[in-house]
Specification:
By secondary structure, the chain is α+β, with helices and mostly antiparallel strands. The protein has helices at residues 84-87, 104-108, 113-117, 205-212, 222-238, 251-260, 278-282, 291-306, 329-344, 357-366, 376-390, 434-449, 523-538, and strands at 3-6, 16-22, 29-30, 35-40, 45-49, 54-59, 66-68, 72-77, 124-127, 137-143, 150-151, 156-161, 166-170, 175-180, 187-189, 193-198, 347-355, 396-399, 402-405, 411-413, 415-417, 420-422, 425-426, 463-467, 486-500, 503-517. The protein is built from 13 helices and 26 strands.
């Protein structure tokens, strides 16, 4: 009996998924546990395995297409079984057709019904792809093809920047690039007209007008692009740079160049259209460029001789220099969510100073145990978990009709990454030992910086800890990571004079700042939580009770 396989929900916030790659094709035998496809979410690309066995009879979402959760993904059944009834009414082609899994034209170019019926023969409309389930718009970082270029199936058309990464977008069709709808550096919503591909010489002006009418992107005409093409080709022979100054380079080449401190403007690209690739960076030998300095010094004597009677005023040689960096999609999402948190949740901050002498001695003793490494941050996280069990109102979230009290403790740990900030989550933190917390935090932080975390590892936090003490910051206030009701900011340990038993002695202290949502946490409740937290940190042995 045939079984319908639907688009899985791979995280609690996932509403759509993109089929990155099909690892099976129609007619293949499927065993339970076989990997059917790779599904891309906003956090990661995950392997999706089959829970059934049989023959793959139908593919409902071709590679590269995005579809809502629970959409028909595939049908598995007995070889030769008729599945027409299962897919009746579905927009996808029937499984019995030989090209059921490969009509990529429809997946890449979902156009309005009216426009689709008027397309000339062989013309394909390519729209801005949805590369993650939270993506609402994308930025064209680089065009790797220009109007008039021949495009083969699998060629990289452009690099598109999302909220998580810059991804190469390949063509699922072949023909000639007739039209570019979104210029380099421009941002447009998902499904906006990106490009048109078809037979050379096809008149597509009416199609472009249908898509750009009422839109916000600036479209170039084929005639303009074709006239500019020879000049662009000449420019890219010497410098791998587009007309607006954007460097043509693969993401990997950019990363290696950044790591090595190499300026991409000095590198000549050997790739398509002068594109800089990995080998160009690895083989690059920097050269000394002293021409600007010599020009400046040569011009100086002329300036002095032009006005010999004027007083000599020293003016350093230099130039006014500014740089505009386009906001990445990750940075846009961070800005949006933090602004929502700050402007919707009434924040207030409570600050307390903690004596760290006993904590420092306890940590030194703990770390003498072989294969054990515990940081002060680990001790703070453990203390927070225990304090939250005693003060569950801190471990809450606000809803319009109720306050949700979480009696489980999942602590999110803020981790700085190259493009922004992520918050991996320690599930059931109160049940973990100090050494388990330390090992887990190191693992999660390492994978976060390499973008290897799964979406489920960044969801479900009930409280957040942010530590800038390792950067020497003694005190700061954080913005609440909603839907949490509070976030703890941890400063550096400072050696300073303190009063003990009426005597001034040298001691070590640390500042803790608790940002609270006043809708759920009153000041007295937050203060009581900090008092308990202080007791745990100042006497670590109490955390073992």
């Amino acid at each position: 009996m045939a079984i319908k396989v639907t688009m899985p929900r791979l995280s609690d916030t996932m509403t759509e998924g993109t089929v990155a790659t099909w690892l099976k094709k129609v007619g293949d035998k499927i065993s339970e546990g076989d990997i059917l496809a790779e599904i891309e979410t906003d956090k990661a690309t995950m392997e999706f395995e089959s829970f059934n066995e049989g023959t793959l009879l139908y593919i409902g979402i071709p590679a590269g297409e995005t579809a809502p959760v629970d959409s028909l993904l595939a049908i598995i059944g007995n070889e030769g079984e008729d599945v027409t009834a299962l897919i009746a009414g579905d927009a996808a082609p029937k499984a019995s057709e030989p090209k059921a899994e490969t009509p990529a034209a429809n997946t890449e170019a979902p156009a309005p019904a009216k426009a689709a019926t008027e397309l000339p023969k062989g013309v394909i409309v390519v729209t801005m792809p949805r590369l993650s389930d939270t993506m609402t718009e994308g930025t064209v970082a680089t065009w790797l093809k220009k109007v008039g270029d021949a495009v083969a199936e699998g060629d990289i058309l452009a690099e598109i920047e999302t909220d998580k990464a810059t991804m190469e977008f390949e063509s699922f069709n072949e023909g000639t690039l007739l039209y570019i709808g979104i210029q380099e550096g421009n941002t447009a919503p998902v499904d906006s007209l990106l490009a048109i591909i078809g037979p050379a010489g096809t008149d597509i002006s009416g199609i472009a007008d249908n898509y750009t009418a009422g839109g916000t992107t600036t479209a170039s005409t084929p005639a303009t692009e074709e006239k500019a093409a020879p000049a662009a080709e000449k420019a890219t022979e010497t410098v791998a740079e587009t007309s607006n100054g954007r460097i043509l380079a693969s993401p990997l080449a950019k990363k290696i160049a950044s790591d090595k401190g190499i300026q991409l403007t000095q590198v000549k690209g050997s790739g398509e259209n002068g594109r800089i690739v990995k080998s160009d960076i690895e083989n690059f030998t920097p050269s000394v460029q002293a021409q600007p300095a010599s020009t400046a010094t040569a011009a100086a004597p002329k300036a002095e001789t032009a006005a010999p009677a004027a007083p000599k005023v020293f003016v350093p040689a230099g130039e006014v220099f500014t740089e505009e960096i386009k906001n990445s999609q990750m940075r846009k999402i961070i800005a949006k969510r933090l602004a929502e948190s700050l402007f919707t949740a009434p924040h207030y901050n409570l600050v307390i100073e903690v004596t760290m002498d006993d904590a420092m001695a306890s940590r030194a003793t703990i770390n003498t145990v072989p294969d054990t490494k515990v940081s002060f941050n680990d001790m703070v996280i453990k203390a927070c978990a225990l304090a939250l069990k005693k003060h569950p109102k801190i471990n809450s979230q606000w809803k319009e009709d109720a306050i949700i009290i979480n009696h489980h403790v999942n602590i999110g740990v803020a981790v700085a990454v190259e493009d922004g900030l992520v918050v991996p989550v320690l599930k059931f933190t109160d049940a973990m030992s100090l050494s388990q917390i330390g090992a887990s935090v190191r693992d999660l932080a390492g994978r976060a910086k390499n973008k290897k975390l799964g979406p489920q590892e960044m969801e479900g936090s009930t409280f957040t800890v942010s530590n800038l003490g390792m950067f020497g910051i003694t005190e700061f206030n954080s913005i609440i990571n909603q839907p949490n009701s509070a976030i703890l900011s941890v400063g550096a340990i400072v050696e300073k004079p303190v009063v003990k038993n009426g005597q001034i002695v040298v001691g070590n202290t640390m500042m803790l700042s608790l940002a609270c949502d006043h809708r759920t946490i009153d000041g007295a409740t937050g203060a009581q939580f900090l008092q308990t937290l202080k007791q745990y940190i100042e006497s670590p042995v109490t955390m073992l009770a």
